[in-house]
Structures are given as C-alpha cells and as structure tokens.
Design goal:
This protein is an alpha/beta fold and 210 residues long. Helix content is 42%, strand content 20%. The chain is built from eight helices and seven strands; from the N terminus they run αβαββαβααβββααα. It is globular, with a radius of gyration of 22 Å.
C-alpha cells in the first residue's frame, strides 16, 4: 500500500510546486539616494556632462549618455542645458572624479558660465552590447548651491540574471507600447540601444519626490 500512497502524495504536491515556479514579476532593487526636498528645490537648470568609463571597461559612453538625457527629459523636472563643445571643464571634472575627488573649481566655473544649478556626472562601470547585454552605471548630481550630491544612483543590469530579465519584462509591459515585433518585450534583450534606454529609464525612475 505504500507505493500508491507515495504516488498520491506526489500528485498532490505537483500543483503547489508549479505555483512556486511561476513567480510574479518584480522590480529589481536599485541603490539610490535622493536629498531632502529643500535641497532639491533650487536644482532646476542642469547640464549632463560626457560620461566616463572605468578602467578596463570599453563602452559607447556617448550612446549611454544620450539615452540617459532622453530619459531625464521625459521626467519634465529639469531644464537640461546642452553641453557646448567648448566646455573644457567637463573633461577636468570627469578626471577629478576618477581620482576620487571632484574638482569644485571646475564645477563652479561651468555653472557660472552657463547659469546652472547643478551638473550630472556619470561613469559606465560595466558594458556588454552583445547578447546577453549588461550595463552598469554610477551617476550623481551635484548642486552648485550647496556643493553636495543631491541625487546618486549606482546599479548594474545584467540580462544573464533572472532579476534583471524579470524587471525588464515588467518595465516593458508597463511603459512600452506594442510595436508589432515578433520578439515582443524580448527585443530589448537583442537590441543594445533598447537595453541601454531601459537601464537609463530605471536610473531616472529613482527620482521620486513626495
């Protein structure tokens, strides 16, 4: 009699096992910091500097920056001032950040010249354009009024990781309209530009004021 009882127990357990496998989609946790409302109030006119990359990382920093600026403009929170080619302070600021200490003199000169409230700097910490793509970034916005960081985000999205894939599917379901592609939301895993745009939107999505 033991064998039939074991089979019955196994059959009863299978539906519950299936329920455990089908997990609901969830957003991927992301490390971010946003200052108090009083510190954010005067930061309206900003400039996004050219993105740098960590040593040993080969990345299309211009593409990453463009995706970030596009996502930032959709937030409708800032006036994003275009970066003139003559703004040599951008290179000085990025170099100082790589050394671990921001050049406040360069930032003040840049902000005074273009009447900015703050600057946003970014570093690509990981990059792979081919499948499975991944992108890691570290970004921070510095207020010229206080000299302090008012917004910072540090995260890595790797499509070889289940949490990233689940987050991407959830993001696509909520935010992206159907484009008629046979790949559906999975096209974001095949097209580097779309994956970069997704990560940029996730970074910008951490700016949530009360």
């Amino acid at each position: 009699m033991r064998a039939p009882l074991c089979l019955l127990a196994l059959a009863a357990a299978l539906p519950f096992a299936g329920c455990q496998i089908e997990r609901p989609l969830a957003e991927k946790p992301i490390n971010s910091y946003l200052a108090e409302p009083a510190d954010l109030a005067n930061v309206r006119r900003i400039m996004v500097l050219p993105f740098a990359h960590e040593t040993g990382v080969q990345a299309d920093c211009a593409q990453v920056r463009d995706a970030f600026v596009a996502a930032l403009q959709k937030l409708r929170r800032f006036e994003v001032v275009p970066l003139p080619e003559s703004a040599r302070e951008a290179e000085e600021l990025n170099a100082s950040i790589r050394r671990g200490r921001l050049s406040t003199d360069a930032m003040v000169r840049l902000c005074e010249r273009y009447a900015l409230d703050g600057v946003l700097v970014g570093t690509v910490t990981a990059w792979r354009a081919y499948t499975p793509p991944h992108l890691g970034m570290r970004t921070q916005m510095i207020s010229v009024h206080s000299g302090a960081t008012v917004w910072a985000v540090d995260a890595m999205y790797d499509s070889a990781d289940r949490t990233t894939v689940g987050d991407l599917e959830l993001f696509a379901t909520r935010a992206l309209s159907e484009d008629g592609s046979l790949h559906g939301w999975e096209l974001n895993l095949l097209a580097p530009g779309k994956f970069t745009s997704y990560v940029a939107h996730r970074f910008v999505g951490t700016w949530v004021e009360d």
